[in-house]
C-alpha cells in the first residue's frame, strides 16, 4: 500500500488530525525502511547482518502492511461492505433461481425487527440510534476512543490503542456476556445471592449452552466446573452422594431446555434412582439460543418446521420421580425464597426457571415499557457496590454517563425487562409504560 493510499484511507477515520498524521508517518517510515533493505545498495549489509535481521525486517513489513490493511478494511466500513457483497453475489450466482426466490420469500415473511418498543422513541433516543447506525455502517471509531502510545507498556487498560513502536492496533479484551434482558443473568444473580447467605458457598456445576457464560463475569462466576454437554447432572449426582459422608456443601447443577432433551434425561434417572441430594435448575428459555434457535421437542415445531405437540419438561421430570417447582427469574424476591428453600431439602430437587429468551420476545412481541434512571437519586460512584447496575449486574442496557458520573439506560439496547430496577440499591431506576417483568 502506497503512502498516498495510506493517507486516503486515514481520511475516513474519525480521529484527531494530529494523531492521524502520526500514524500515517509511522506506517510510511516502516515501509520505507523495508524498501531500503531490498535495494542493491543494502545487499552487502543484509548478507553481513544475516538471516536473523532479515526476518526482523520481514516482520516489520508485515506489521506495516497489517496496520494498513486494518485501516483500509477493518476501520472503513464501505470497503468491507463491498468485499462482503462481492462474496455474497458470487455465492448467490451458484444457487438455482427457484431456491433464491424461496429464500427471499422466507426472509420477507420473517419478523426481524431489532428493537422491542411499541412506543415512539424520544428525540434523544432517535438521535443516539442514528449516531450508532452511522458509526457501525461507516466503520468509524467514535471520538476519543483511539489512543496513541509509544510502547505497549503505556496502553491504558481496556482501550483501543495504536502502538507506535510495533505499528499494531491493540484491541481491548472483552468477555462474552448475556444479551440485554436475558433471564440467565437474573438466574445466576439470584443463585449467587442465595449461596452467599449459606454457611458454605456450595458447589455449582455448569453445562453447555448460553449459560456457559455463568462461569464468567456475566454469570457472577457462578460455577466451579464444566466439562461437556450432559456431564453436569452426572457430576452433581456423584457429589450429591457425598452429603451422606460429611460433605456440607449445597450441590447445584443446571441445564437449558434444549440440553435437557438432548443429554440430561439419563443423568436425571440416575440421580433419582440413587437418591442424590442436589438441585437441578432447568433454564427454560423456550429456545436453543446459543446455536441459532433450532427447534427442540419443547418448542412445538419439528426440525422440518411443522407444528407438533410440545413435550412438557415438568411432566417428564415428575414422571421420573423428581420434586419439581417452577419459578420466574424476573420475579426476584419469590424466586430467591424458592431457591433457598429447595437447597435445604434432601433428595433430587428440580427448579424450572421459566422465562422466554429476550431475543425471541423482541421479535415476537413489543413491550410498551421505558426504563430510565433518575440521576438525582442515583448514588453514582458512591453506590455501595461501586456502580452496581453497570459493573455488578452488568446488563448491556445498563451503561454509565461519564459526563455526570451517574448510571443511565441505553434505550437502543434495553429490552424493557425492568429487572435492574429491582436490584438498584437506591431505587433510582424506574419502569414506565407497562408492567415490570
Question: What layout of secondary structure does this protein have?
Answer:
Blueprint (H helix, E strand, L loop, with lengths): L2 H8 L6 H22 L4 H7 L1 H25 L1 H16 L4 H13 L13 H16 L7 E4 L10 E4 L4 E3 L12 H14 L6 E3 L25 H11 L9 E6 H17 L4 E7 L28 H8 L2 E5 L4 H13 L3 E7 L3 H7 L5 E4 L14 H6 L4 E4 L4 E4 L9 H5 L5 E4 L5
Helix pairs in contact: 1-2, 2-4, 4-5, 8-12, 9-10
State the main characteristics.
Alpha-Beta Plaits, 13% strand, alpha/beta, single chain, 437 residues, Rossmann fold, three-stranded mixed beta sheet
How would you describe what is shown here?
With 437 residues, this protein is an alpha/beta fold. Among the domains are: 183-362, 3-Layer(aba) Sandwich (Rossmann fold); 368-432, 2-Layer Sandwich (Alpha-Beta Plaits), CATH 3.30.70.20. It contains 15 helices and twelve strands. The protein has helices at residues 3-10, 17-38, 43-49, 51-75, 77-92, 97-109, 123-138, 183-196, 231-241, 257-273, 313-320, 332-344, 358-364, 388-393, 419-423; strands at residues 146-149, 160-163, 168-170, 203-205, 251-256, 278-284, 323-327, 348-354, 370-373, 398-401, 406-409, 429-432. The strands form four sheets. It has a five-stranded parallel β-sheet, sandwiched between helices. Strand 4, helix 9 and strand 5 (251-256) form a beta-alpha-beta unit. Helix 9 (231-241) packs parallel to helix 10 (257-273). The chain starts with a helix and ends in a 5-residue tail after the last strand. Mean pLDDT is 77; it is low at 40-60, 62-66, 68-81 and 111-118.
